[in-house]
Structures are given as C-alpha cells and as structure tokens.
Amino acid sequence: MATLKEFEEALRENGMLMALAILERLRERDRATRVVKPGRRIVGKKMTPELARQILELHGSTEMTQQEIAFKLGVNQGRVNEVIKRGKWLSGDQTAPEAVARDKGKARIQGAEPKRPRKAAAKGGQKSGARSGAAKDKAGKPQRQPATAQLAFGDL
C-alpha cells in the first residue's frame, strides 16, 4: 500500500498540479482542526495492602493485563508490576522500604524535608578536568593492568 508521501510524489511526477493543490488544501484544513492534547496522567491512589491484594486477585482471576488492572484501580502500572512480581505493599508495615520511600517522597514534595545539598564538582580547589592520581586511588580500588590476549593467530 502506498503512503501519502508516495502518492504525492506520483502526482508531482505526472504533473497533476490540481490534485496537489486539493491535497494541500485538505492538509491545511486538517491542521486547523487538529488539537494537541497533553498526555493523560493518572494520579495514583495511595498503595495499601488491601489495594495490593485486590491487584493480585484481579491478576489471578482474570486475563487482564497489568495496564488494564492499573486503569481499573486507578494506580500506576509500575505499582501493579511491583505487587505482582515482587510482592511489594502486601504487608502493612510502615517501615517497609517502599513505604519509607513513599513517605520521604511525600515529605519532599510538601517541602517539609530540606533538599539534599549537591555534591561539589570541585572539592578542595581541584578542577574536574584535572584529577590527580591520588583522587583515583581514593576509591580504594587497585588499578587494573590491561588484559593480555590468551591466543594469537600463530598459536594455532
């Protein structure tokens, strides 16, 4: 099947200027009525153990995809994946890693928790481009020797 661009090129090759003019007029009409809508963003519900159990129930009893489950329950698809794959959110423990991360994120959004200061790129007056050998050794990792070939063509 020919694309619109190929159709336009064929019209141009055959000198069908009137058809090209009609095509252009249709394009302009389409552009005038076209509306660009922002992406649909779903504001997710707070994940709770009850909601996690409901996700697992839907996943086990229906043939719904993770995306369909997320739309139905009004949660992020990533959260559905976490519940199904890793069993997150099933315990009501407030010290669980996912609950702690959620609470930190909420506090940061509300401005209650001060933002972490950024690490200075040039500590101690060093420029980022001119690192000394001591800075490389600071990590405590021994420097690797270049790998040598195990076989050469002449060895065979």
TrEMBL record:
Disordered as annotated region, ranges: 92-156
GO terms assigned for molecular function: DNA binding
Biased composition (Low complexity): 122-133
InterPro entries: Lambda_DNA-bd_dom_sf, RNA_pol_sigma_r3/r4-like
Protein name per UniProt: RNA polymerase subunit sigma-70
